Amino acid sequence: MVEAWYMDESQEDQRAPHRQRPNRSVSLEELRRLGVVYRRLDADNYETDPCLKEIRRAENYSWMDIVTIHKDKLPNYEEKIKTFYEEHLHLDDEIRYILEGSGYFDVRDKDDKWIRISMEKGDMITLPAGIYHRFTLDENNYVKAMRLFVGEPVWTAYNRPADDFPARKQYMKFLAEEA
């Protein structure tokens, strides 16, 4: 099951857990109020999983690929890791399904505080368009993930500040309605 918590302010290794002391857990309901959707699937059988097939049909996830993030598998690994960890948003939802390994997605809450979401094999997350977020590997330094898209894939990240994009304005409106 996914675990999430508020991050400390430490500038140490981004791959460390960065838990506050005492730990401040974040529930799935709190993540949902931020527009973050979590699902647990059978990653051992992702190629034939009827649940994944139904999610893809229902959400119109027509395109997918698989990416492996590891120093031996990803060209320009160090540069990519730095890019993934820069705070940014997308104009479309970001959907990631962890097939092997683990890592962290960090998202901003309504008060602009970082929440760290620990992702491992079998976890699927949808981050809404317009949410500020970032990704990093954890201390295991390996993840294999499926990326899902509606239509043609768009990987464009807009680093903060990106508050003038319609996706960001729509997301802020969503947060206000959730409050």
Automatic annotation (TrEMBL):
<keyword id="KW-0560">Oxidoreductase</keyword>
<feature type="region of interest" description="Disordered">
    <location>
        <begin position="1"/>
        <end position="24"/>
    </location>
</feature>
<keyword id="KW-0223">Dioxygenase</keyword>
<dbReference type="GO" id="GO:0005634">
    <property type="term" value="C:nucleus"/>
</dbReference>
<dbReference type="InterPro" id="IPR027496">
    <property type="entry name" value="ARD_euk"/>
</dbReference>
<dbReference type="GO" id="GO:0010309">
    <property type="term" value="F:acireductone dioxygenase [iron(II)-requiring] activity"/>
</dbReference>
<dbReference type="Pfam" id="PF03079">
    <property type="entry name" value="ARD"/>
</dbReference>
<keyword id="KW-0533">Nickel</keyword>
<keyword id="KW-0539">Nucleus</keyword>
<dbReference type="GO" id="GO:0019509">
    <property type="term" value="P:L-methionine salvage from methylthioadenosine"/>
</dbReference>
<keyword id="KW-0486">Methionine biosynthesis</keyword>
<dbReference type="InterPro" id="IPR004313">
    <property type="entry name" value="ARD"/>
</dbReference>
<dbReference type="InterPro" id="IPR011051">
    <property type="entry name" value="RmlC_Cupin_sf"/>
</dbReference>
<dbReference type="InterPro" id="IPR014710">
    <property type="entry name" value="RmlC-like_jellyroll"/>
</dbReference>
<dbReference type="GO" id="GO:0046872">
    <property type="term" value="F:metal ion binding"/>
</dbReference>
<keyword id="KW-0963">Cytoplasm</keyword>
<keyword id="KW-0479">Metal-binding</keyword>
<dbReference type="GO" id="GO:0005886">
    <property type="term" value="C:plasma membrane"/>
</dbReference>
<keyword id="KW-0028">Amino-acid biosynthesis</keyword>
<keyword id="KW-0408">Iron</keyword>
<protein>
    <recommendedName>
        <fullName>acireductone dioxygenase (Fe(2+)-requiring)</fullName>
        <ecNumber>1.13.11.54</ecNumber>
    </recommendedName>
</protein>
